[in-house]
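Per reviewer request, we include the raw input and output of the structure prediction for the construct analysed in the revised manuscript.
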Amino acid sequence: MATPSTAAEDQITQQMTAFLDKLQSLANVPDWFPAAFIIFGLLISILFLFLAAIGRGGLIHGTILADGNPEAELKLGQLWDEGAAQLWNLVLFSLLVGIILFIAALAVFLVILLFTAVTFGIGALCLIPLSLVLIPVSLLVSAGIELGSVAIVVEKCGPMQAVSRAWGLVKANKGPIILYSLVIWLITFVISLILIIPVVLITPAY
């Protein structure tokens, strides 16, 4: 007759064996599946990139119309057409900004890595003040992306012209842009906090 401890050990062993069998069955996927999964993910990413560009363009156009004429009737089809009209410029602008940010981030990483190696690890302490500097920089970058998108939709700029236009506006208005972005961030943070706190307080009750 099996003791309770032995029965429990047998049950655990059976569960582990069943779990390992499931893992092995998941590992036995067709050779084409990883490549198909990657291609599917890329297609979805491209689709979302295009839809986001159209939505951003339509939203900017609608905002400009509403600002000029508060009584103007905004139709979804019209906003979609306006966003689609600048689709390629907006997509290329997003890709161009992404490449610039990637190169800048890579350059900063390599400089920090080299400085850390030369100073035998002491340079890693620079990451603390650098992280604080990144806050206003990220706000300026976000504002620049929005300003560049506006330049494409309103001023019909190309991707390179939009980058130059956004850079000029950000450089000339650093203070107001950072202040405005911080105010928007704080408002968003407070609203999110107000929405989250009741959920956190209610959750333990269940």
